[in-house]
Amino acid sequence: xxxxxxxxxxxxxxxxxxxxxxxxxxxxxxxxxxxxxxxxxxxxxxxxxxxxxxxxxxxxxxxxxxxxxxxxxxxxxxxxxxxxxxxxxxxxxxxxxxxxxxxxxxxxxxxxxxxxxxxxxxxxxxxxxxxxxxxxxxxxxxxxxxxxxxxxxxxxxxxxxxxxxxxxxxxxxxxxxxxxxxxxxxxxxxxxxxxxxxxxxxxxxxxxxxxxxxxxxxxxxxxxxxxxxxxxxxxxxxxxxxxxxxxxxxxxxxx
Amino acid sequence: xxxxxxxxxxxxxxxxxxxxxxxxxxxxxxxxxxxxxxxxxxxxxxxxxxxxxxxxxxxxxxxxxxxxxxxxxxxxxxxxxxxxxxxxxxxxxxxxxxxxxxxxxxxxxxxxxxxxxxxxxxxxxxxxxxxxxxxxxxxxxxxxxxxxxxxxxxxxxxxxxxxxxxxxxxxxxxxxxxxxxxxxxxxxxxxxxxxxxxxxxxxxxxxxxxxxxxxxxxxxxxxxxxxxxxxxxxxxxxxxxxxxxxxxxxxxxxxxxxxxxxxxxxxxxxxxxxxxxxxxxxxxxxxxxxx
Amino acid sequence: xxxxxxxxxxxxxxxxxxxxxxxxxxxxxxxxxxxxxxxxxxxxxxxxxxxxxxxxxxxxxxxxxxxxxxxxxxxxxxxxxxxxxxxxxxxxxxxxxxxxxxxxxxxxxxxxxxxxxxxxxxxxxxxxxxxxxxxxxxxxxxxxxxxxxxxxxxxxxxxxxxxxxxxxxxxxxxxxxxxxxxxxxxxxxxxxxxxxxxxxxxxxxxxxxxxxxxxxxxxxxxxxxxxxxxxxxxxxxxxxxxxxxxxxxxxxxxxxxxxxxxxxxxxxxxxxxxxxxxxxxxxxxxxxxxxxxxxxxxxxxxxxxxxxxxxxxxx
Lengths: 255, 291, 315
Prior knowledge:
The complex is a heterotrimer. By secondary structure, chain A is of the alpha/beta class.
């Protein structure tokens, strides 16, 4: 069963076709990877899925609902969370508060309850804190909860960003180049963390540059090239595909 | 009647354009709302007033000295108050610092010159000539000429002089310009200096044609410069010209046909409507941030 | 280091709050001189104003230079309601607050499209239009002379007349402001404001409807300004447009910045320092605003997070 499906999604900036008629589907419970050389449209694609960009053409269907034109915050509310390629944790705020902000959509206190029924509002806040601790536990960040996010080492900030996304209890988690800037040890921690998230029933869509990582983690991989879907298959198929190799080799030569 | 109102409007518009150019350039490069702009040019204009009224200096020399003093003050403000904050994480910090700088300049000027309206001497002979049956004062003609010469000259400077090209380059992209060997700090100082100079020229022409100057015109000048820059599109020379003209004309038409006490509120209303309808200005392009 | 248990920390917190409130309650018996009590009342007014402004500026990261206009809206509303329509103080106070809230909401709507500096300019324009209209609309606002003879306020059987009475009224308003802001900032709303300040895009990805929250912060912050204006009207018994100039908005911003943005109580230190400084320099009237400007620039250059603020605005 499809959790999310895109139909001929298209987006161009000026004369550049960043995403050109990409149709793909993400199945419930899987880990789908997306790879492609620089500028192949991966990040634009994620921005289209999460409402940051509106596509010029095409549709996005999530849980049988058309979410193509929904605003960003609505998309989070109905169950898609994401991280950013260039790490966007709230730097000057404590780790705990970062998670609580991530849980925003799950705390159902109205303004009236905050002012007029502060006790019941406080109870929900307390429950949210306890839940937040569970997420921190998952990433082994419990001891860090009172530190400012910017004081965490880079790898832990990455984990924190994922935790923050998880705190909204999404059905689909989008990770935009989660291992950018990580060392091999941090990458292993991340891979293990992703497996634990999957085990908890969340569907995961990873965009990644690092081949070794994506091949080890993803169950199915989509390859993008020049804004188009180039190939789709299991990690083994992708690895042995000559076309995919030539895209990447071509890029190496350019470098 | 209407023709004369329009002529005065065009003259005021030309002056506003002068005041706007410097503001718009700075904003285009640093994205900094320079709240001190108006107070800098009022300072220069007051210097000119003192040189003319108290020392009876040759008008040409007086204006030149005043313009340079305004330019230096503008560059000094940038050096002391803005440069350190260029890399600040939150833009708000530099905006509030600019506000503080405006306060300091305004109140220092007030200590020297007081806050009453001073009578500014005329620069041009108080005569008028008749063109095709329309009476035009010599002051208006000269003012318009000076404004046009300065604007055209600055345009040529930007296009053909090395330092001018450096300014255009820096306003496109600071890091890249720096890689290409353009001295960023010096170029920015030049922009502030020129902004101050043009501002003072505008201030002097304005004060000379109305024979009045007061400290309180500074803040109004900042608002006018920003409004005109926003109307025309930030960082564009032609935009500054169009924006200044629109403001000058509408102000005069309103003063004459509605009431002069609604001049300022209506300027603000124009500003609000422009901000709401087309925040990037009439000539500006839409911009979008990269995620 | 021995860890303080959570329970005793809460207990300490409650005790220290009660101690501060008790101290403030007996203050008029310590300061008997009406001049000093008058300055204290001024501090209370600016505390209300700056706590509200801090919600907009320090928490949500919106630079508003129109706070004085909301202050003025409250002042004029109370003055007009009490002198012309025979309202008693309490309803006038509430209406003044709500009026400021509604105008805050209206001015907040453009934040959807107008960002950063342009928004700041919009608030300047709003503030100036408010003041110019107050000056020009003579039949309704009394023009530059303002409205005089605002009656002595009564709340039920309490007639508020002396400096001490006004001190207690101000204190009640400050406590109300503080407690309501504690409730708000400790909730998901307060966290949403901070998230918007830190990174608006990331905030929206967290499921925060950022335009709506900006409007919310702006209108709630303005509400308190309306209350402060209402208090000012009955305290001074007159209201004139010159009390609500742009300078006044700037002064409030300086107070918030000197004290420190983004923490509820930090601006109070800024209010106290700046009010006392303004009073101390009164003999140097000519240099007063100059000195304030210099303080402003110096603080921003060398300690942008303010004296007691969070690290939020540090480079």
